[in-house]
Design a protein that fits this description.
613 residues; alpha/beta
Length: 613
């Protein structure tokens, strides 16, 4: 099997892929073990294993080797491949963020007469990192930002270009001096090395990718040149003509795939696929194409008539679809949880919620917990929204003058005093609220004798209007947080803090440890800066779900769901601005600047979101 193939729009991708491979190796089932299948995500590899299991009604089957693109980017071993050169290591994320934060602070102090905000500097540094990652992923050179002439743009863009000199002038020498390269650059260069030098003997199939990154497209081109190389594209719309593909705007779901087809050529249909599009595929194609037609001329009107969806087609396709409108995200989450619980009553049935809304995901999880149900969460939960994360953020406020509302939220947190008599603590908290706080005016409550106040000294000692090392805040915060939660004695007689015991606590402990190791790269802070500073750092840390593994309830992101098939699928958060997400302006470059520099249009994100839909 060799060449470029596609699985049509509306066809379950992994099921079709498995059926084609089984058919191809029917004469010698052992030959399937020689295949290597590369998929976009690790979740896709797990789903492919499940698809092979479902296709094997009896007996056993030796499966092909499955690998994710992420594993290749991280430098995993590939059969018959030796890297032509050892690339420098990627700079650790916290070290990169800390150094860039200090560069941002220095720029602000120079431009604003000494006024600076460390928390704001971290946010700006995070945005700079996103820009660098996009530049490196696209294969551009950040030094070319200098070619964007400020005289060609409005005056405020000249200030932005001055700020971006942090990336063009200051940042490259720092990377070179420390012997690091950008993480995104390392991932791209590894893929380019593999594409250029890997020549496997056994069959290789790259499946399920749309080639949104240039390095992935280059890998696809190199695989097609192999003697036994094959690329399988997902969600291919057979109804589009070459002229229509050429005219697709970036917001269309087939746009990114069409850009890849320009590089690879026209695909053939994967074995055992229908040449005539199904009604479902035709419906999806027409629904998406209708928004692409121009207004105000007869030709456009003829095109709209051709792409108009008939009532019969709509009835046939939408007969198994139910739409639910909710007045709020709370009602939406409850209705989704009820549907998932109801459908779970059917034996062996899998139910998947697909959404890009993190808040909806959290609320659905909470509603399922009321019935003792756990869903397998593919994207994980942000650490800041976990039990331990919320406790750490609330307890960080002890370093400054917190409000009565914030203090009560901390005192009533489930982890507060967990290692001691929890009932006694809640009774003390109730008395403190009624006898001391009620009717009190003002926000200075840390001087009051709240339960556990005697353990907060190390943090409150830093509230002296002076700047302190970030490492001191982390150290004292951990001491206070562990003391407020309490500890337990193991069977071996060892005392262990309950704060870091559960899964989210272990992630928080690793986060704290790594952050402490690189704390010297961050700027000094005052007490009023620390809580928001910590919140910004914690924002992108993820707690991976482990309790939901094996559950028939799944909550998937749009990328993971691209290759997944479930018996019941619920699409949640289909609100303007959420799915599809709103196009936020680039904080650094205008649309014309992005085009001049060579970055892809921002509207392409809508097209990718529509393709996932």
């Amino acid at each position: 099997m060799k060449g470029l193939y596609a699985i049509p729009l509306g066809t379950p991708f992994l099921k079709a892929l498995v059926n084609g491979l089984i058919s191809e190796t029917a004469s010698d089932p052992l030959n399937l073990a020689r295949y290597m299948i590369i998929l976009p995500t690790r979740r896709g590899c797990l789903s492919l294993q499940q698809a092979f299991l479902e296709a094997t009604s009896s007996g056993c089957r030796i499966l092909p080797q499955m690998i994710a693109l992420q594993d290749i980017e991280e430098g995993c071993d590939l059969p018959g491949y030796l890297p032509p050169e050892i690339l420098p290591p990627a700079m650790p994320n916290w070290q990169r963020l800390g150094i860039l934060s200090q560069l941002v602070l220095a720029f602000e102090r120079q431009k604003e007469g000494g006024n600076s905000n460390p928390a704001r500097a971290v946010r700006l540094a995070q945005e700079l990192i996103r820009l660098v990652d996009e530049i490196e992923t696209t294969g551009l050179d950040s030094s070319d930002l200098k070619t964007l002439v400020g005289a060609d743009y409005a005056a405020h863009w000249q200030l932005t270009l001055d700020f971006l000199k942090i990336l063009t002038d200051q940042w490259p020498p720092i990377l070179a001096e420390k012997g690091f390269i950008e993480p995104a650059a390392r991932r791209r260069r590894i893929l380019e090395q593999v594409a250029t030098h890997w020549r496997p003997v056994n069959p290789v199939i790259l499946a399920g990718t749309t080639g949104s990154r240039p390095a992935t497209a280059l890998l696809a081109q190199s695989i097609l040149k192999l003697e036994k190389g094959c690329v399988v594209l997902p969600g291919f719309d057979q109804t589009l003509t070459p002229q229509e593909r050429e005219a697709l705007p970036p917001t269309h779901p087939q746009y990114t795939l069409s850009q890849l087809i320009k590089k690879l050529g026209t695909p053939d249909l994967w074995p055992n696929q229908l040449v005539i599009p199904t009604t479902f595929a035709g419906f999806l194609s027409k629904a998406m194409m209708a928004a692409c037609q121009e207004e105000g001329n007869a030709e456009a009107e003829d095109q709209r008539k051709m792409w108009r969806i008939s009532e019969g087609m709509a009835d046939e396709v939408l007969s198994s679809l139910q739409a639910v409108e909710a007045s709020s995200i709370l009602e939406e989450a409850r209705q989704i949880a009820l549907i998932m619980r109801y459908e779970l009553e059917t034996p062996n049935q899998t139910i998947a919620l697909v959404t890009s809304d993190k808040e909806l995901t959290r609320r659905v999880q909470a509603d399922l917990h009321r019935w003792g149900l756990r869903a397998n969460l593919s994207s994980g939960l942000p650490l800041a929204q976990s039990l331990v994360g919320r406790f750490l953020l609330l307890s960080s406020l002890l370093v400054q003058d917190m409000s009565a509302t914030e203090l009560l939220a901390l005192l009533k947190h489930p982890l507060y005093s967990e290692g001691r008599d929890r009932l006694e603590h809640l009774q003390k908290t109730r008395r403190f609220e009624m006898e001391v706080l009620r009717g009190r005016v003002g926000d200075q409550v840390l001087t009051l004798p709240f339960p556990g106040h005697e353990m907060c000294g190390p943090l409150q000692a830093l509230n002296d209007s002076q700047s302190h090392l970030f490492a001191d805040f982390l150290k004292n915060h951990a001491i206070v947080a562990e003391a407020l939660v309490g500890s337990q004695t193991s069977d071996l007689g060892e005392t262990q803090s309950l704060l870091w015991k559960e899964e989210d606590g272990q992630v928080a402990a690793a986060f704290w440890k790594t952050l402490s190791e690189h704390a010297n790269h961050f700027p000094p802070l005052t007490a009023k800066d620390y809580p928001l500073f910590l919140q910004n750092l914690m924002a992108e840390e993820i707690v991976q779900d482990v309790e939901g593994i094996g559950s028939r309830l799944l909550i998937l992101g749009t990328l993971e769901a691209r290759l997944f098939q479930a018996d019941v699928v619920i699409l949640g958060g289909l609100n303007e601005g959420t799915w599809p997400g709103s196009i936020e302006d680039d904080p650094w470059l205008s649309r014309s600047m992005r085009e001049s520099f060579g970055l892809p249009p921002l509207e392409r994100k809508i097209g990718l979101s529509a393709h996932d839909f």
